[in-house]
Amino acid sequence: MTAGEAVAIIVVLAITAYACSGIPDFGAGFWDLTAGGRRGGRAARALIDEAITPVWEANHVWLIYILVVSWTAFGAAFGDIMTTLFVPFILAALGIVLRGANFALRKDAARAGGRHLAAWMFGVASIITPFFFGTALGAIMAGRVPSNGHGNPASSWWNATSITVGVLTVAVSAFLAAVYLVRESDRRGLPELHDYFRNRAAVAGIVGLLAGIAAAFALHSDSLRMFHRFVHRSIPLLAVGVVALAITFVMALRGRTRGIRIPAIIGVAALVWSWGVAQYPYLLPFSMTIASGEGASQSLHWLLIWFIVALVTVVPLLVLLYVLDQRGELGEDPTTSRPEHSPQPHAGTPAVDQHK
Question: From CA 174, how far away is CA 141, in angstroms rounded?
Fold first, then answer.
């Protein structure tokens, strides 16, 4: 294995971690947007706030890592991708900025109307980001990003493959969020929200399955060579992914939430790896390989060294963050929080309306 291939594997692992965390806001922004009116969606939004507030920016560590490693190790491919796909990436970045600002504003806005508008913008932005990341991935898979960087700025990402992959990305993000929130509702003793998010996990799973089938047909029409690579090289991983997500789906329907995150993570990871295996050894199918697009060997070796440093420093801290969150040891300080925005009470007490 060359240094360039090792770094490419690291990038795929970082993408896997980002995907398994639900991309932006752990996917919960979708359910916040579709929770209904201020009164009807009160309990669901309160649970979403409690679940993601302590950790809501942690998953973007992976996005930053992906960007830094990619432009350092594979500068030529990174430049071509950003030149051709600047529109979806700008829109995805806009979504990241808007969801961050409005998630904070919806808690601290003085007027109820301002909080409602900020909550709506938060939800919309949380859908924009995974969708446009998905369209960019679809464009790369379909070979619509040439190695000269002069791809069509519109048709490269606005096509059947990109759109269906974008919808699939949103559906997977929403499915993971619903599954995680089913578990959170049980952990907090909220049975009515268990059924609420269980039903939404089922809907998101069905939509994701249909979007995946549509994406396969679109890729077959758009890039038969890449389609064959998925079918012949990645079929074991695709099978693992489908089976794991099906197990998650069944566990959610039956109300078995203990350990439900494990098959969900395995399923999404397998789907990401199936893409990596199908595209290998190309950075840009089928015009730039890893060998032809990698940077200086000295830079690659330093990236590998810093990967080890991050592995023993940053990753344990992220694990600690999630462990403390699951133990209920993180959250807003009730002595400093505004009364109308105080954290959700524990089991047996009514939800606080943060959008009233």
Answer: 23
